[in-house]
């Protein structure tokens, strides 16, 4: 029995790929972050950012929170802010799927939509301008150490434990980079041999949740030395693998998870042996109004 929905954040399952691999000497496991109560890996960071800010006294119930998001972090923040009785305003590009907007609103958040043409960078600029008025507090997932530390405290230890310390490669899409930074830090402390593989979109590819940031918007929590290899994936590869995950593995996920899985399969087919863990960062039901699953 759990005292709160917050007790359900983390300890997500690992499942083994059954049909995607051609290399019998490599094991590929998917970590199903859609099993978190808010439906994504971002529950971990959102919970740690809000809880830590409350404990330090940075915020209280009179604070107006504001945050720019491409979706999953916003949903997680809306859910957790509601549980703590906090007021939150979320800013995202106007081309975000309606499922994301409505889910945030269902949790009680106010949602502001910014021009799709300037993307998440425009949402970040809007949030910064609002914060500069002095009436808001921004958790700032892109520069907040509580983001990556959530994964140092939970995601990394879970993977190490659940693979019986046999993991050889960790694969994660890179957006805010909190997941890969925190998990890398923990896993490298256990074994310097574990290879950390980041996934980015190829030139011109638009994959929600994965970014190749312009230098001025690069997340401040990102430390390139914590990533051993970067694999680029195309939009077509990400879409195709997202559909294959659902059809062949029964894993219903979003496009950034498909991008990570595409990179993980490429990696697996290049190795002589190994045990790979790839993050499946959310669930596919928040993309149904998009073209992702349309044939």
UniProtKB/TrEMBL annotation:
InterPro entries: Cys_synth, Cys_Synth/Cystath_Beta-Synth, CysM, P-phosphate_BS, TrpB-like_PALP, TrpB-like_PALP_sf. Pfam families: PALP (PF00291). Its EC number is 2.5.1.47. Pyridoxal 5'-phosphate binds at residues 72, 175-179, 256. Pathway: Amino-acid biosynthesis; L-cysteine biosynthesis; L-cysteine from L-serine: step 2/2. It comes from the Bacteria. Its cofactor is pyridoxal 5'-phosphate. It is an enzyme of class 2 (transferase). The keyword Metal-binding does not apply. The modification N6-(pyridoxal phosphate)lysine is found at residue 42. One of its GO terms (biological process) is cysteine biosynthetic process from serine. It catalyses: O-acetyl-L-serine + hydrogen sulfide = L-cysteine + acetate. Keywords: Amino-acid biosynthesis, Cysteine biosynthesis, Pyridoxal phosphate, Transferase. PROSITE patterns: CYS_SYNTHASE. GO terms for molecular function: cysteine synthase activity. Belongs to the cysteine synthase/cystathionine beta-synthase family. This is Cysteine synthase. It comes from Christiangramia flava JLT2011.
């Amino acid at each position: 029995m759990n005292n709160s929905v917050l007790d359900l954040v983390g300890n997500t399952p690992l499942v083994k790929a059954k049909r995607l691999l051609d290399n019998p000497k490599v094991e590929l496991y998917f970590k199903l972050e859609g099993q978190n109560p808010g439906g994504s890996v971002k529950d971990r960071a959102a919970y740690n950012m809000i809880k830590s800010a409350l404990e330090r006294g940075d915020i209280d119930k009179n604070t107006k929170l504001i945050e720019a998001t491409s979706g999953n972090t916003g949903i997680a923040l809306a859910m957790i802010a509601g549980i703590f009785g906090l007021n939150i305003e979320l800013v995202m590009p106007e081309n975000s799927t309606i499922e994301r907007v409505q889910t945030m609103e269902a949790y009680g958040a106010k949602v502001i939509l910014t021009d799709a043409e300037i993307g998440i960078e425009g949402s970040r600029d809007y949030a910064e301008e609002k914060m500069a008025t002095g009436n808001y507090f921004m958790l700032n997932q892109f520069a907040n150490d509580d983001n990556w530390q959530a994964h140092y405290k939970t995601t990394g230890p879970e993977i190490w434990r659940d693979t019986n310390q046999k993991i050889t490669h960790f694969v994660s899409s890179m957006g805010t980079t909190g997941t890969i930074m925190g998990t890398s830090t923990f896993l490298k402390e256990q074994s310097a041999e574990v290879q950390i593989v980041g996934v980015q979109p190829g030139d011109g590819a638009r994959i929600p949740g994965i970014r190749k940031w312009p230098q001025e918007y690069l997340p401040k929590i990102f430390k390139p030395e914590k990533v051993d290899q970067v694999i680029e994936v195309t939009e077509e590869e990400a879409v195709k693998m997202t559909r294959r995950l659902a059809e062949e593995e029964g894993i219903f996920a979003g496009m950034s998870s498909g991008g990570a899985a595409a990179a993980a399969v490429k990696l697996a087919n290049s190795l002589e042996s190994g045990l790979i863990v790839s993050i499946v960062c959310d669930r596919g039901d928040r993309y149904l109004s998009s073209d992702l699953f349309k044939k």
